[in-house]
Design goal:
single chain; Rossmann fold; alpha/beta; six-stranded mixed β-sheet; 18 helices; 590 residues
Length: 590
């Protein structure tokens, strides 16, 4: 949600004269320590929660020097001007308007101005009278709830947060319960858990920790505090007794629940949400802020975390905060390419974190792939075939059914592949197969025969040769197998790698040594009659003797399968060589 479009802050702490524009649903402020980042959040807190300010401490020190030198003490003030967007439902307010609040040297608000009168006189507001505009403004401001989450989330803040949650739960339960809460707390707790089931589920999905919410059963304590119990094995542990990382992760979950179930307009000022979070949790937290929490609140985040700084889409604005040349006042600038480089230099860890993020993402993906493969292999002793993508699975399955008159899964297990919305493969290709066979095959402690089948094209053959050069795989040759592109793992004798076996009509599509002259993919195991002209790409304008297959491979494979299923006679003889080689490897290994 978006309620604020722009903010102008004058003379508050290090913010001497800051205009922060183009605010979005999620707004991220970053910079080195003592740059003044948190002062943006504290300015919002001062504005919305109408607190008196400690003027001596909060007045901008650079401005104070200027005022003293100019002998204009009467002009000492703090000003915060917020440009709002009408969230809808307020016909007495314009689409956009601003409010200015000014604090003088006493720390009290001395001025509150807005531009409703000008817009009403200009006919930009539908209200029949100016007084209705003022009433609409009061209602709007009364519905805004700004929650400032400090960098240090101590016990006091945590209980304050639980009080906010308790208020929402009472409001929600009051509509549903007919029993007397003060005498039947057991029934109320059961009802409360039913009401907050989605909160518990959300927290469980994000953290993997089960939790329940309860009120104390002693009536004297009933309105004092809410109890959140988390589960560890068969034991319940109060959330306040868990580590800071787990408690920290519950804070935005609670705030989001409050925002989702409240009629108020919620704005968060979140200072260093990554505190006490390990690497993986900080990553998930940042992604949840960007995808889920902004649905119900406008959020302002101060952070050093790469995971937050690297977030980018049309609902996110990023800002760099730094001290000016005098080292007293702060500058807040939009994070463009130049400022991103400056920020990276200031923080010193961005590039390291970026590489770490890539490695971690790769590790998670590979770990999941290994987990899936291991679970599949444990289901059966069948040989496991790893093709480069889902289209290869489909074409070999269709060919196998035609040639063998049975399903391929009756004899083999096929590696599963994911595709995105346009049909292209996600995380499965020749380089990924190479990586798995080279670095991770030893982490798959099974005895099933594993055969990886590379395309005999430029990329596939290069990855196959890279395995051969790794000194982990050796050439495999026994009676009955004459094809030269067969490798066996030196230690795990059940693991093989091969390329497609070219059928006689595709012999000129491969070269035994030079990958630049290799074009054979699974699609080309079918003869030319089945390859649409649009999918043929020739190496040069002058050479029409060979071509590569380009286009949506999954769609092509599905069409071939549909034709075969509808009784159309298709020549699958080009698949025989590869299937016979696979069968010989299995028989020799057994």
């Amino acid at each position: 949600m978006k309620y604020i479009e722009k903010v102008e802050i004058q003379y508050f702490r290090s913010l001497k004269d800051s205009k922060i524009k183009d605010l979005k649903e999620l707004n991220i402020f970053s910079g080195k320590n003592d740059s003044g980042k948190s002062n943006v959040l504290k300015a919002f807190d001062l504005f919305f929660n109408i607190k008196d300010t400690n003027f001596l401490l909060d007045y901008n020190k650079e401005r104070l020097q200027e005022v003293r030198s100019e002998s204009v003490k009467g002009k000492q003030y703090i000003s915060i001007k917020i440009h709002f967007l009408n969230p809808g439902g307020f016909s007495s307010l314009p689409e956009k308007f601003y409010i200015v609040r000014v604090w003088d040297r006493t720390g009290k608000i001395v001025t509150e101005k807005h531009n409703l009168k000008q817009q009403f006189d200009a006919g930009k507001i539908k209200a029949k009278s100016y007084n209705r505009c003022l009433g609409g403004l009061t209602k709007f401001l009364n519905r805004i709830e700004y929650t400032y989450v400090p960098a240090v989330k101590d016990e006091r803040f945590f209980y304050y947060l639980l009080e906010l949650l308790q208020k929402i739960l009472f409001e929600k339960s009051r509509k549903n319960t007919i029993s007397r809460i003060d005498s039947i707390t057991g029934e109320f707790n059961a009802e409360l858990n039913s009401i907050t089931n989605d909160l518990s589920n959300e927290f469980q999905q994000i953290t993997g920790i089960d939790s329940t919410l309860n009120f104390p059963t002693e009536i004297a304590e009933l309105f004092q505090r809410l109890i959140i119990d988390t589960k560890s094995g068969n034991h319940k542990i109060p959330l306040q007794n868990r580590g800071e990382g787990i408690r920290m992760r519950y804070i935005p979950t609670i705030l989001n629940y409050i925002s989702r179930n409240s009629k108020s307009f919620h704005i968060w000022g979140f200072d260093e949400p990554e505190n006490s979070c390990e690497y993986s949790l900080a990553k998930e937290l940042a992604q949840t802020f960007a995808s889920e929490y902004i649905k119900n609140s406008q959020i302002f985040v101060v952070t050093h975390s790469f995971h937050f700084i690297s977030l980018a889409n049309e609902k996110i604005s990023r800002f760099r905060v730094y001290k000016d040349e005098n080292g007293i006042s702060s500058k807040v600038v939009f994070l463009d390419k130049k400022n991103l480089e400056e920020l990276e230099s200031e923080l010193g860890i961005i590039q390291i974190n970026e590489k770490l993020a890539e490695l971690y993402s790769s590790f998670v993906k590979e770990r999941e792939e290994i987990k899936i493969i291991k679970s599949k292999l444990e289901e059966s002793t069948k040989p496991f075939l790893i093709f480069e993508g889902p289209s290869d699975n489909q074409l070999f399955s269709t060919a196998y059914k035609f040639l063998k008159n049975k399903e391929i899964i009756s004899d083999y297990i096929l590696c599963e592949h994911q595709t995105n919305s346009n049909g292209s493969t996600i995380g499965s290709n020749a380089p990924d197969i190479n990586k798995y066979l080279h670095s991770h095959i030893t982490k798959t402690p099974i005895d099933n025969i594993i055969i990886a089948i590379f395309d005999y094209d430029n990329e596939g053959f290069n990855e196959f040769k890279a395995l051969k050069k790794s000194n982990i795989y050796t050439n495999f040759s026994v009676d009955g197998i004459t094809f030269r592109n067969v490798l066996q793992h030196k230690d795990k004798k059940n693991v093989f790698a091969i390329t497609l076996v070219p059928p006689p009509f595709r012999e000129i599509y491969v070269h035994p040594d030079n990958s630049n002259y290799c074009y054979l993919t699974t699609e080309l195991l079918l003869d030319d009659n089945y390859i649409p002209v649009a999918n043929k790409v020739y190496p040069t304008l002058f050479d029409k003797s060979v071509f590569s297959f380009h286009g949506k491979k999954v769609s092509f494979a599905q069409k071939i399968d549909e034709k075969a299923a509808n009784g159309e006679v298709i020549d699958f003889s080009g698949f025989k060589g590869t299937l016979e080689l696979i069968e010989k490897l299995v028989n020799n290994a057994n």
